[in-house]
Amino acid sequence: MIKNSEVRYAASPREVKRMDTQELRDEFLVEEVMTVNEIKWVYSHYDRFMVAGVVPKNDVTLETVDELKSEYFLERREIGIINIGGKGAVTVDGTVYELDNKEALYIGQGNQEVVFSSESSNNPAKFYLNSTPAHKAFPTKKIGTNDVEVVELGAPETANARTLRKYIVNSVVDVCQLQMGMTSLKSGSVWNTMPAHVHDRRMEVYFYIEVPEGQSVCHFMGQTDETRHIWMQNEQAVISPPWSIHSGSGTSNYTFIWGMAGENLDYSDMDTANIPDLR
Ligand SMILES: O=C(O)C(=O)C[C@H](O)C(=O)CO
Ligand SMILES: [Zn+2]
């Protein structure tokens, strides 16, 4: 068993209201997600959601961590994987699943050996990983770009025109509680998830990618009448508590991967804020 993990406890709205910039960043921002040849987990106490990334220039095996007190990582967990790099493969108990850029894999509870690899170490795969507790073993399934559910949202006039792709949702793959997808802002649009919403039944983690060099994304969080912001760079992730809005605005367009877990699998269960009511 290796110690390659960090715990983030669950903070309440009352605590967060009093946090300064550094405290907010320490609590919610995951600055380094993609690590070469190793996996460094962040374990959030919001719905026990785990987030990490791996760039396997050599083969990397998924190991359990102290926090889980389990024989192997997926003993009581499920995991979702989206590749944002070059061609790679994930081998699950001997079965090889090749994953090209923007292809995903869901692996159900009970699989014992998971190995990440790249086709070429010069253009390695970059696997983004989200994991949640699981109560049932659902089959492992690859989700290609043609399998996803695509939704067009927003408009250029409100600078929020974007394409949302649902990869790991219960209409695409059987899951216990994990949901994952990817949203891409169109050129000229900068606002994601605006109007902002809260879903007290589920927490969420955002992983901002494809932020051009020299640009940044300002992530918004907090209660609708008490918002805070965190400036984020390319390939950083942020934990969004269930009681918090989650929205962002960039200095250019960008993409992000969202992952959720909690009480239900109902993607549409969200309470939308009235934009002029945001404070
Ligand atoms: O741009 C959006 O809108 C999203 O991507 C919304 C997220 O998927 C979300 O917050 C789901 O609850
Ligand atoms: Zn949401």
TrEMBL record:
<dbReference type="GO" id="GO:0008697">
    <property type="term" value="F:4-deoxy-L-threo-5-hexosulose-uronate ketol-isomerase activity"/>
</dbReference>
<keyword id="KW-0413">Isomerase</keyword>
<comment type="function">
    <text>Catalyzes the isomerization of 5-dehydro-4-deoxy-D-glucuronate to 3-deoxy-D-glycero-2,5-hexodiulosonate.</text>
</comment>
<keyword id="KW-0862">Zinc</keyword>
<dbReference type="InterPro" id="IPR011051">
    <property type="entry name" value="RmlC_Cupin_sf"/>
</dbReference>
<feature type="binding site">
    <location>
        <position position="197"/>
    </location>
    <ligand>
        <name>Zn(2+)</name>
    </ligand>
</feature>
<keyword id="KW-0479">Metal-binding</keyword>
<dbReference type="InterPro" id="IPR027449">
    <property type="entry name" value="KduI_N"/>
</dbReference>
<dbReference type="InterPro" id="IPR014710">
    <property type="entry name" value="RmlC-like_jellyroll"/>
</dbReference>
<protein>
    <recommendedName>
        <fullName>4-deoxy-L-threo-5-hexosulose-uronate ketol-isomerase</fullName>
        <ecNumber>5.3.1.17</ecNumber>
    </recommendedName>
</protein>
<feature type="binding site">
    <location>
        <position position="246"/>
    </location>
    <ligand>
        <name>Zn(2+)</name>
    </ligand>
</feature>
<comment type="pathway">
    <text>Glycan metabolism; pectin degradation; 2-dehydro-3-deoxy-D-gluconate from pectin: step 4/5.</text>
</comment>
<dbReference type="GO" id="GO:0019698">
    <property type="term" value="P:D-galacturonate catabolic process"/>
</dbReference>
<dbReference type="GO" id="GO:0045490">
    <property type="term" value="P:pectin catabolic process"/>
</dbReference>
<dbReference type="InterPro" id="IPR021120">
    <property type="entry name" value="KduI/IolB_isomerase"/>
</dbReference>
<comment type="similarity">
    <text>Belongs to the KduI family.</text>
</comment>
<dbReference type="GO" id="GO:0008270">
    <property type="term" value="F:zinc ion binding"/>
</dbReference>
<dbReference type="GO" id="GO:0042840">
    <property type="term" value="P:D-glucuronate catabolic process"/>
</dbReference>
<dbReference type="InterPro" id="IPR007045">
    <property type="entry name" value="KduI"/>
</dbReference>
<feature type="binding site">
    <location>
        <position position="199"/>
    </location>
    <ligand>
        <name>Zn(2+)</name>
    </ligand>
</feature>
<dbReference type="Pfam" id="PF04962">
    <property type="entry name" value="KduI"/>
</dbReference>
<feature type="binding site">
    <location>
        <position position="204"/>
    </location>
    <ligand>
        <name>Zn(2+)</name>
    </ligand>
</feature>
